[in-house]
Amino acid sequence: MIPAAFDYIRATSADEAIAALAEHGDDAKLLAGGHSLLPLMRFRLARPAVVVDIGRLNDLKYIRDEGDHVAIGALTRHRDVETSEVVAAKVGLLGEVTSHVGDPQVRHRGTIGGAVAHGDPASDIPSALIALGAVLVAAGPSGSREISVDDFFAGFLETALSPEEVLTEVRIPATDGAWGFEKFNRRAQDWAIVGCSAAVRADAGVGVALVNMHPTPIRAGATEAALAGGAGAAQAAEVAAEGCDPTEDLNASVEYRQHLARVLTRRALEAAGL
Amino acid sequence: MTTRLIGASVPRSEDRRILDGAGVFIDDIEPAGCLHVAMVRSTCANGRIRRVDATPARAAPGVVAVYTADDLGELGRRNLPLLIPNPALTEPRTQFLLAFEYVHFVGEAVAMVVAESRYAAEDAAGLVEVDYTEFPAVVGPLNAFHSKERAHVDMNTNVAAHFVQEHGDTEAAFEGATRVLEREFMVERSAATPIECRGVVAIPEQTGQLLVYDSSQAPSTIRAGLSTYLGVAEHEVEVVAPDVGGGFGVKLPVFYPEEILVPWAARRLGAPVKFVEDRSEHFVASNHERAQWHRVKVGYEEDGRICGLVDEFIHDAGAYCPYGIIIPIVTASRLPGPYKIPAYGSEMHVVYTNTVPVTPYRGAGMPQGAFVMERVIDLIARDLGVDRAEVRRRNFIAPDEFPYVVGLMDEDGTTTTYDSGDYPRGFEKLLESIGHAGFPAEQAAALAEGRRIGIGFGCYVEGTGCGPYEGARIHVETTGKVFVSTGIATQGQSHCTILSQIVADVLGVALDDVVVKTGDTRQFKWATGTFASRIAVVAGSAVAEAALLVKEKAAEIAARIFEASTADVAFEDGDVFVKGSPDVRIPLRQVAVLANPLRYAFSSEALAATQFVGDGERAKAPPPSEVAPGLEATAYASPEFATFASGAHAAVVEVDVETGAVRILRYSVVHDCGRMINPAVVEGQVHGGTAQGIGGALYERICYDEEGQLKNANFMDFLVPYASEIPEICVEHTETPSPLNPLGVKGVGEAGCISAAPAVIGAIEDALGVEITSSPLSPEMVAGLAAGSAGGEAAGSFAARGGVGQSRGETDGA
């Protein structure tokens, strides 16, 4: 359980990280909180030749109230999101979801950018960002660009980020609407077997997204459409698993995951007052 | 000092040092110039080795040596020992230090890399190429029993042992029974997973001696074995178990290959060599337990009294059976638990599978027996429509029926005979603790709110304190410290605390003045080992006896000084005096000085013991020549029979019928380990065991696929419960002293984990109104069972995975 040999670069600015990525391309991996990358390296499932440590880019650690949205720097620790008053007041769902990630030690190390950029369908945070309609900001050699969360997750552990891009900021539209989050796991600190985020957005539309129901974090599109069409929580939740392609693992069969998606979506919608 | 220390909940003497970070665990031991080992392990579950190519690994940076079986010479052709043979074990198989012709499980050691660092060793281990001709893997006990494939291709069966026992006439019992019930049960494979993995450090010393640090539960046995395997005199090898982070049986087996290979390599290379297992390795290279399939036929009367029971079971031995058939023997002899079964038959089939070998893990066959027996009791209650507690009451062995002969062979070869107990008393206390009387109303009220709650019970009898022996030496130092050394090793059970209490109690000294040293063959050579909940009973008895001998000797010396009778010498607060004259006292440390007549005066105490000081009174004359110098004594305890602790668990659970989540609302244990030396330690043991038992009921399941690959060899996928999953456990006690030892104590180490599964699963069964016959249960299985009981509406196909008594999925291999 010792990683294979790798070179280590500590970036002192985002530009330096981007330059390092440009130089090493696919051989390089960004290290932020390390809670996704390091286990993979210890099992030698990931063997990056170069690790670019961006953990000390303090200018990417912030939570800002921008009026109609909240801007969170990519290197902001989960613990800071979880305890932020701005997050609680304007994007409450994200604070609640973040409080369910791992355990306190993990939340003091892991970062919002790392959780998003890893593209793990079992991660809780992307579901909140999808439900809330977030926009992700990436910086690369040719400048910055905005990516809608709906275009961000490209495949299992794959995102729209190019090899030389660094995720710098997460922008979440503010809402004072109700929300609900349901996470089903076997032990308190575990990844979700299935999870569901639901949020009433500022435009009164309802965003619903699922955890661990597809190769990527996924929007529960059929449920959102049913709600938009006037269906109640129970009825809308019945179609939660539509369009999802969940996998089977030691904790759950495909059918059980689909069942949990329906149950948890109903509960999340009910918690959101729907 | 009027307060007795035996029976007092004094704080653990071990904690301060460990919490201060002053503990010395195996990975803390890093001698200068230490070399590091990484093992190359089989990736093939069942195969013949065509080729091992270590050439690229030998050339890798930092590599000192790479050993394959061919490099071990004669040692490489010698099987590891079959520790406990049995005539019924007709096909014994044990592994080689390094596999040289066949491999029989994924994780079996194939080659050993020694390098300047673990980094270099691990990198080089990845370069060793091994080619296999693969054979179909045999996985799961039922599958192994019925399959045409062979776990060992040189055998024409997978059955290692077949053993039939009967006590009473079961055939006649069934003829006389008014009701007969038959069921199949499955308990799946699990693992102990102590927080510290295994490790060994071997240091060849300048004197020519070999000093071995080993995280073993039986260092003295390791020493004896090492000398035979390495061909060196016993006095040239010393083995020390340092601080060890949990054992639970998995560190007991003598030997794991590394325990011989590392000392062997250290001698060969003339340098210290260290191996510390990592967590991934631990799952595939340290032994497992638990997997058994049972088929029970039980005959009983209309009132629920059992007249006869026959249990046929298949025990999964894994790839090898170094412990013989001890685990299934324990299962068979302990299955009846606290119940009187006039006619009991047991037939075991022990089968090989291409999986990690199976040796005792906390409970060692008892949890499986208890699960089956308690399910049977619940089934009888269900069949008769009688309260489950009442059926238990009607079958308990009565308090006046001890010693009670169960009849089957026990793990020590004796006929299983319970020494003492009061099962009804403990059970009634349990019912009160859990709120049994009010539960039907509570359940009805919950149901009215749409909540499904249930109550379940699990009773057990735990065999503890078996022989052959343990010993201890107690030495009262001239500093006043009382040094106790014993050969048993300790892994966190509070042994030092309880042994100190016994010594301090007998000698009337302060607890802080007693220092206990365990598991160091340089200090004490003779021991059996730490297993079977035997330390308090066996080592405790030896320590008590040694303390009494020291006291006798001290009394004789003091009697000469005081010119009194030995019977009148009293011990209190570290002093001795004559009863009735407590004001004239001398410290015990001064008695220690006088017990060692000296020629040289190097301190004021020593001066008093030299030959020309004082008035030459007889008190300073040397003791008679048949008395050894020093205030010191050694004693051994060799119990002829085990002593049997007992207890009962009860759980109240709430089941979320939609998700299958199970929440434990209340949990109670009443435990009886005879006279308690330290009730807080007893409760700690019960808590930890219960947590492990709840893990076994709801979380922990070692999962192999059909190719014999372990699918959850990490803590993300093998679910050990955290504190967040374990409820508050209410522990109460009854004390039925054992007549078999002077302290009246029984063991407690394994108690907690034996009956958690039947209690929790019985409660789920009660909440859902279904029948459950397998363990552990996952939420998916519970949701399936709930959907099935509700008429099977929403559950869809996953309801079938509820696996009610069915062989399902991977580990049982059907």
What does this structure look like?
The complex is a heterodimer of chains A (274) and B (814). With 274 residues, chain A is α+β, with helices and mostly antiparallel strands. Chain A has three domains: 7-53, Uridine Diphospho-n-acetylenolpyruvylglucosamine Reductase, domain 2, CATH 3.30.43; 58-173, 2-Layer Sandwich (Uridine Diphospho-n-acetylenolpyruvylglucosamine Reductase, domain 3), CATH 3.30.465.10; 179-271, CO dehydrogenase flavoprotein, C-terminal domain (Enolase-like, domain 1), CATH 3.30.390.50. Chain A is built from twelve helices and 14 strands. In chain A, α5 packs antiparallel against α8 (125-132). Chain A starts with 6 loop residues before the first strand and ends with a helix. Chain B has 814 residues and is of the alpha+beta class. Chain B folds into three domains: 31-135 and 196-245 and 251-285, Aldehyde Oxidoreductase, domain 3, CATH 3.90.1170; 292-466 and 640-801, Aldehyde Oxidoreductase, domain 4; 467-595 and 630-637, Aldehyde oxidase/xanthine dehydrogenase, molybdopterin binding domain (Aldehyde Oxidoreductase, domain 4, 2-Layer Sandwich). Helices cover 27% and strands 24% of the residues of chain B. Chain B is built from 21 helices and 29 strands. In chain B, the strands form seven sheets. A seven-stranded mixed beta sheet of chain B has the order 3-5-1-12-9-10-11. Chain B has a six-stranded mixed beta sheet with strand order 7-15-14-13-8-29, sandwiched between helices. In chain B, a hairpin with a 5-residue loop joins β13 and β14 (306-316). Chain B is globular, with a radius of gyration of 28 Å. Mean pLDDT of chain B is 93; it is low at 792-797 and 799-814.
What are the key terms here?
heterodimer, A: 274 residues, alpha+beta, Uridine Diphospho-n-acetylenolpyruvylglucosamine Reductase, domain 2, Uridine Diphospho-n-acetylenolpyruvylglucosamine Reductase, domain 3, Enolase-like, domain 1, 3 domains, 5-stranded antiparallel sheet, globular, B: 814 residues, Aldehyde Oxidoreductase, domain 3, Aldehyde Oxidoreductase, domain 4, 7-stranded mixed sheet, disordered C terminus
